[in-house]
Design a protein that fits this description.
The chain is an alpha+beta fold and 117 residues long. It has one domain. Helices cover 43% and strands 20% of the residues. The protein has 5 helices and 3 strands; from the N terminus they run H-H-H-H-E-E-E-H. Strands 1-2-3 form a 3-stranded antiparallel β-sheet. The radius of gyration is 14 Å and the shape is globular. The two termini are 28 Å apart.
Length: 117
């Protein structure tokens, strides 16, 4: 078992790759589902990381575009030159947030999906 705290670079990569639980499991034997308690990064650090690594932001977006579930999930898509992040409720978008940059949209989706708001 590795010792906490988790290095920021590892946190950022795991958030962008969707592998946060696996990462935390390397540091905590039985991690709580509330994974945010093990993280030290903030939204701006994630946005900066995604801006410096646009391929990671694009890969995350591509994975999320494949999600077909329309109930009780966070979804993201592109519409009219903007990136949309919304909570889906029986096919209806709720709490719609619009972003000009992919990095901001991905950061929003990641943080909401992991309960970091």
């Amino acid at each position: 078992m590795k010792s906490l705290p988790i290095p920021e670079t590892e946190q950022l990569n795991a958030l962008a790759n969707g592998s946060l639980y696996q990462l935390v499991s390397e540091y905590v034997e039985k991690p709580s589902p509330a994974l945010k308690q093990y993280l030290t990064i903030n939204r701006q650090a994630l946005v900066d990381f995604l801006l410096k690594n646009p391929g990671k932001a694009e890969a995350y977006f591509q994975r999320q575009e494949q999600v077909q579930t329309t109930h009780d999930v966070e979804r993201m898509w592109e519409e009219n030159g903007e990136y949309i992040v919304a909570s889906m409720d029986h096919g209806n978008a709720r709490s719609v947030r619009r972003f000009k940059s992919l990095a901001d949209a991905v950061a929003e989706h990641v943080l909401v999906s992991y309960g970091m708001y």
